[in-house]
Amino acid sequence: MEGPLAVVVGILIATGVYLMLARDLLHYLFGLVLISNAANLAIFIAGRLTRASPPLIPEGQEAPQIVVANPLPQALILTAIVIGFGLLAFALALIAQVYRELGTLDVDRMRIAEPVRPKRKKSL
Amino acid sequence: MNSIILQTATRVLVALILVFSVYMLLRGHNYPGGGFIAGLIAASAFALFAMAWGMEAAQSALRIPPGNLAVSGVALAGLSGLMAIFYGDGPFSGQWLTLIGAKEEDGIVISNVLFFDIGVYLTVLGAVLTLIFALEEAS
Amino acid sequence: MESAGDTESRNGDRKTPGKWISLLAPIPPALIALSLLYHLPDISAGREFSFGFTWVSELDVSFRFYIDGLSFLFALLISGIGFFITIYAAEYLRGNPLLRRFFLYLYLFMIGMLGLVLASDLITLFVFWEVTTVASYLLIGFNHASAVARRSALQALLVTALGGLCLLTAFLLLGEISGSYDLQALLTKGEQVRASSLYIPVLLLVLIGAFSKSAQLPFHFWLPNAMAAPTPVSAYLHSATMVKAGIYLLARLHPVLAHTEYWEWILTCTGIATAAVAAIAALRQTDLKLALAYTTVIALGTITMFLGSDASAAVAAAITFLLVHSFYKAALFMVVGIIDRQTGTRDLTKLHGLAKLLPLAFIAALASALSMAGFPPFLGFIGKELKYEGALAVASEPALVGTAAIFANAVTVTVAGMVAIKPFFGPPPVDISCIQRAPPGLWISPLVLSAFGLTFGLAPDLIGGGLVEPALTSILGLPETIDLKLWHGINVPLLMSIFTFVFGVFMYLKLKQLRSWLNWDFTHAPTNADVLWDKSLEYLKSFAALQTRILQNGIMRRYLTVIFVTLSLALSYALLHTGQFSLEFVWPNLNLKEWAAVLLTVGGTFTAGAASRPLVAICALGALGVGITLIYLFFGAPDVAITQILVETLYLVLIAAILPRLPVFSRSKKVRFRPRDAVLGGIVGLLITVSILVVLQTPFESPVSEFYKEAAVPEAHGRNIVNVILVDFRALDTFGEIIVVFTAAIAAVTLLGHQLRRGKQ
């Protein structure tokens, strides 16, 4: 059951890496989305999959009587998704700002901090 | 977007979604739901409102600046966590208080955990709305 | 100093520190020295003190101090000389607006030195060692407006910090060998350390540390440069502190590391070479302060040379000479400071006839110089006799050590003449009117210190039994007795003394010829360590620039490529290293709806990867989000599924909001397929898949999850276990996470708001 999902994670990562290496910043962002989804899914798989019930306890019982899904990775992923959202929203704001300032989304042309050929000073 | 159908429908829908978000928040401890989910639901309600009526309308409908909402959420969560210290426990450990009735089963139970979840709800709502408004405003 | 003071006073209306600081400053060192003296009888009787507390119990590191004969001697010197230095400095730097800062640095330095010599734990010792390094940097660079001072300070910092790093390594190794960082425990385990296979590395590292601090060859060059410091600092650093730290370390670890041929030969040869090089350099100087600085290097070389031996006479010579040297060297530096301050020059060729103008300084100089030259009845004479005795006692090479000692002492005699005779005798200076008499604050300290030299010379028992013997006992481990006296009868050391004196006086008289003979240019010689130092710094800088150009090339895609390649290599290494794992293909038993979710995800992923138009990519991302949501839903995670779908929705809203601002609709550009990136992505993806499969093959145990399942209702009164974990069991984590979300929002607003505000302008 986990096998095909591990392959799905691999595909997500592969595509994410491919997109992140693009020159277009928007592609980079899409790659980031894919990789963060892949990471969540990987944690989910590592906690083992089960088709059983969600980790809820029926009313009046002290503990789950039947096999339920592993709650721990779910708690981890849940917050990770929300934080990932914050990260991506911030990245979007950054991209919007970068475009406003530089007029391009081509990462190869963003060379303000590290100019193409730094002038060497003779004496430091 | 100036769709009359959307605008009319939104008025009703937003109210319904907000009520639903509170419902999801409160039942979160026992059924699927909780602060994160409820916060996201409420945020999507305002996002919908903003799409139909525009950002300024959404902001005035919210009344409170979303940043303040987020701050108060963090503060509420933090305080409810610190509350446990007064009961002699470590911070962020659950404290339960039964208001009416001798036994937990038939009384109204109040806990700092609930307030913590409300804090999460407010923070997520406030932060997400801050992001949406900021990005919309900038464009 | 003056220039620094001027700029400071011009800059602000800062008040010049008042008189109270010169009154208060000497009090702390005086109190320390007095409380140490109070315990002198105990120390003489062989008692030891220990105090402190446990610092890091997990690492067996304690903040513990320990006073035995050796550390007592050093602590007394540090606080005692420190007392005189503070009196002198308060007067010397009178009117300097940075006087408070100066005393802050000086006290920091003093604390560092005291902690260093008293520490009974290797790690504590190292911490204080570094404190002295940092404080000496601040002190040497005190005239921060001067480029020379800054360079010298940085040089001292780098050289001694390099030694410090070696020392830390050595201490960690010593801790490994002996099983404890406790110095007292270590001292009893000398045999074990010497037998260890790590003995040679430990020895070399300790020696690099000690030699760099004590300015031994090849690290000697920083000390003369450190003369850029104000004179009180030089006097302090050179007489009782900084440079003696390395000596202290050698003496302290003598029981542990000595008694081997390596120790003996390295120390003896380094000491002799240092003394010889410094002696030649000292003769060439016309700057009084520099000449004195080189005699310090000579003295340090001599002490190192004697510490190489394990003969008790040699070690006794080293310790006694150390004490003697502290007195006269501090006094002489202070006298040079007086001359410099009152006449404005330290150039030997320009100074003459100052005896009448600075009579008390002259007396102090003469007394100290006689002690330095080893003239009876001064303490220096006893020191020198002991040195010759010690040299003859060195088992391996008495002739070599003896010759070196004679040469070093002869040069010292010459420099003593340069300092005490040349400036004071001869015709009076021309511009006599502008030379003022020195105030008492300046001459009192050197005078008292030189008086010590005479007093202890006449009554050597005052220091012999009380100070030197316990220190010797600490080093050699056996109760030692030492008989310090002036007259030993006519013997070999006395004859050597007389020869030394004659030789030194001869060199003084022939100084001009000697100097012109020595004056072939050293500065262009390739062996000049100072030049080498500059060169190596230059190379370091250009190497840094080169590797920055290669690694920090400013192309983000290359950075990412490096990151992903590194990740792949690390993963492959980990996978290969784990060894056995079998990947066998089993047809997955997914049902139809699960296949649908998986296909939706994969299809969305590929479409997003191949999409040439952003809008297509965004739709594909939506599809893939739905696919992942379904996967969560099918495998028992409704909470996660709800969150995922909500986030997907909001994300689409955000992108829709931002898209009009971006150049996505303006041109339909053809996205070229990049095979190299695709291969890299494929490799990373494949490795991740394999890693997950390997992880899945390990047996699964989750006591934490089981605990949460069991405890959710009884302890947290909640039936949604995921939510209970979030808001109760791991509430602190959740709190951190909402703060992160909050921060992201604030950051985005700040980022965009910044632009908004600028737009309005």
UniProtKB/TrEMBL annotation, chain A:
Subcellular location: Cell membrane
Alphabetical keyword list: Cell membrane, Membrane, Transmembrane, Transmembrane helix
Transmembrane segments: 6-22, 29-49, 75-99
A Gene Ontology cellular-component term: plasma membrane
Highest taxon of source: Bacteria
Keyword Protein transport: no
Similarity comment: family membership: Belongs to the CPA3 antiporters (TC 2.A.63) subunit C family.
Identification of the protein by name: Na+/H+ antiporter subunit C
Membrane topology according to the record: Multi-pass membrane protein
Family matches, as PANTHER family: ANTIPORTER SUBUNIT MNHC2-RELATED
Biological classification of the source: Bacteria, Pseudomonadati, Pseudomonadota, Gammaproteobacteria, Cellvibrionales
Family matches, as InterPro entries: CPA3_antiporter_subunitC (IPR050601), NUOK/Mnh_C1-like (IPR039428)
Organism: Microbulbifer okhotskensis
UniProtKB/TrEMBL annotation, chain B:
A Pfam family annotated for this UniProt entry: MnhB
InterPro entries membership: CPA3_antiporter_subunitB, MnhB
Membrane protein topology class: Multi-pass membrane protein
Main location: membrane
GO annotations of cellular component type: plasma membrane
Stretch forming the signal peptide: none
Every Na+/H+ antiporter MnhB subunit-related protein domain range: 5-130
Keywords, sorted A to Z: Cell membrane, Membrane, Transmembrane, Transmembrane helix
Residues passing through the membrane, by range: 12-29, 35-55, 67-88, 108-135
Subcellular localization(s) per the UniProt record: Cell membrane
Keyword Ligase: no
Family to which this protein belongs: Belongs to the CPA3 antiporters (TC 2.A.63) subunit B family.
Protein name, UniProt field: Na+/H+ antiporter subunit B
Species, as recorded: Microbulbifer okhotskensis
From TrEMBL, chain C:
Keywords of the record: Antiport, Cell membrane, Ion transport, Membrane, Transmembrane, Transmembrane helix, Transport
Location(s) in or outside the cell: Cell membrane; Membrane
Biological processes per GO annotation: monoatomic ion transport
Pfam families for this protein: MbhD (PF13244), MbhE (PF20501), Proton_antipo_M (PF00361), Proton_antipo_N (PF00662)
Residue ranges constituting the NADH-Ubiquinone oxidoreductase (complex I) chain 5 N-terminal domain according to the UniProt record: 56-103
Span of domain NADH:quinone oxidoreductase/Mrp antiporter transmembrane: 119-394
Domain of life, source organism: Bacteria
GO function terms (MF aspect): antiporter activity
Domain (MrpA C-terminal/MbhD): residue spans on this chain: 600-663
GO CC annotation, single: plasma membrane
Record's bilayer topology term: Multi-pass membrane protein
Protein name (database record): DUF4040 domain-containing protein
Record-annotated membrane-spanning stretches: 20-40, 65-90, 102-119, 125-142, 154-175, 195-212, 263-283, 290-308, 314-336, 357-379, 399-421, 442-466, 486-509, 559-575, 595-611, 616-635, 641-659, 679-700, 734-753
All residue ranges annotated as the MrpA C-terminal/MbhE domain in the record: 674-752
Major localization listed first in the record, in broad terms: membrane
Record InterPro entries: CPA3_Na-H_Antiporter_A, MrpA_C/MbhD, MrpA_C/MbhE, ND/Mrp_TM, Proton_antipo_N
